[in-house]
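Tutorial, part two.
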Amino acid sequence: MYKHLTVALDGSHNAQPALVEAVRIAAAANSHLSLVHVICLHDFAVDSVGLLDTQGLYDEARKQGQSVLDEAQAYARAQGVKDITLHLLEAPQGGDAATAQLVDFATQAAADLLVIGTHGHRGWRHLLLGSFAESVLRRTTLPLLVVRNPVDDDSAPAALG
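Running the prediction step on this input gives:
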């Protein structure tokens, strides 16, 4: 069974099913769970046009990332996972740098399983939006569990639990 799981969290509803599955596995196997959020400042800047100063942008991105990790940790603890660490990583350029940060972390941490969520887009939406899951799959040599969110991206996020 898995002794160390790493789960990628970005705060989206696509990451929630991956967290739920990783927590289920970690609780059943009494595994260590690394919760990882990669701050992609490029992506964050697009969403936060009102924040013009760079330091403010960094601070807000870190604050939001920490909030994602804290919420995930509370959920995991409530489900019986005892051994949890939180990791806030930075990939200023986003995209491939975020993939590299996640995969490098999981590899160096000797994770037995890397768990990520996906929206499952195909066709034009996949072409336009790219696929973080596909990038991770191409880069990692670790066992990878990709959990598809059955809820459409345009739907409201579901609550954990």
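The chain is about 45% helix and 20% strand. In part three we will examine how such features are distributed along the chain.
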